[in-house]
Amino acid sequence: EVQLVESGGGLVKPGSSLKLSCVASGFTFSSYGMHWIRQAPKKGLEWIALIYYDSSNKYYADSVKGRFTISRDNSKNTLYLEMNSLRSEDTAMYYCAKWGGYWGQGVMVTVSS
Amino acid sequence: DVVLTQSPATLSVTPGERISLSCRASESVDTYLHWYQQKPNESPRLLIKYASQSISGIPSRFSGSGSGTDFTLSINGVELEDLSIYYCQQGNSLPYTFGAGTKLELK
Mutation test of the interface with chain A: which of B4, B96, B102, choosing the one with the most A Cβ atoms within 10 A? Predict the structure, then answer.
């Protein structure tokens, strides 16, 4: 059974940094591209980042480009999202996902002074 | 970026009726269009992939159609458990984008 478990969220101040993790199990993690998607409170879904299976390519939404970095450690079956220069508009539930219908339960990030 | 416009924003339904939700793309996405259902405090659940392909474990009352720029999610015999928000998402070109959603509510 595919499982994706995010962690690392919390309450942080504007301008600070945070690193999210997503541990994968139930499939060959090193063979698949992975995504981060977020959802602000009471809002819709926003795709924010993609990393290829071998980290050869990374893509970002304009809203996070230059501030967020997606990475992965295939030896640990773990996906990461490093978030810098956080803003109030980054407040959201962050999901990791493997295309094909597999999403984690999400982790909440709140950016507030 | 591809803009996905979902309509209606809200649909009031009666259990048992057949309904259709629309998703229109600002440019062709071929059949790289997927439908998700999201209930409060839950992660999105994939209902239909590649416009019309069914997903294992999803009730057969859910079906999808369309290609290019116009897509439809149909529910044949709405049940109370279907009251939630439905999103379409395109995977044809980066950045991948989602529609704003259609909320199904009880009439």
Answer: B96
Distances (CA, A) of B90 to B27, B47, B81: 11, 14, 25
CA torsion, ordered A37, B24, B92, A47, to nearest 10 deg: -10
Q: Is A26 left (phi over 0), alpha (psi -120 to 50) or beta?
A: left
Please provide residue A41's backbone torsions phi and psi, each rounded to the nearest 5 degrees: -55, 125
Residue A62 contacts B, CB cutoff 8 Å: yes
* Integer Cα distance of A98 and A94 in angstroms: 14
Q: For tokens 């879904």, what's the residue? A: A45
| Chain A interface includes B96 (CB < 8 A) | yes
Judged by a CB distance cut-off of 8 A, whether residue A106 touches chain B is: yes
Task: Please tell me the predicted confidence (pLDDT) of residue B8.
Answer: 97
In this complex, is the C-beta atom of B43 within 8 Å of any C-beta atom belonging to chain A? yes
Task: Please list the pLDDT of chain A residue by residue as tens digits (113 residues).
Answer: 999 999 999 999 999 999 999 999 999 999 999 999 999 999 999 999 999 999 999 999 999 999 999 999 999 999 999 999 999 999 999 999 998 889 999 999 999 99
Q: Cβ B43–A95 below 8 Å, yes or no?
A: yes
Which amino acid is present at A89?
Answer: E
Q: Which pLDDT does position B60 carry in this prediction? A: 97
pLDDT confidence of residue B54: 96
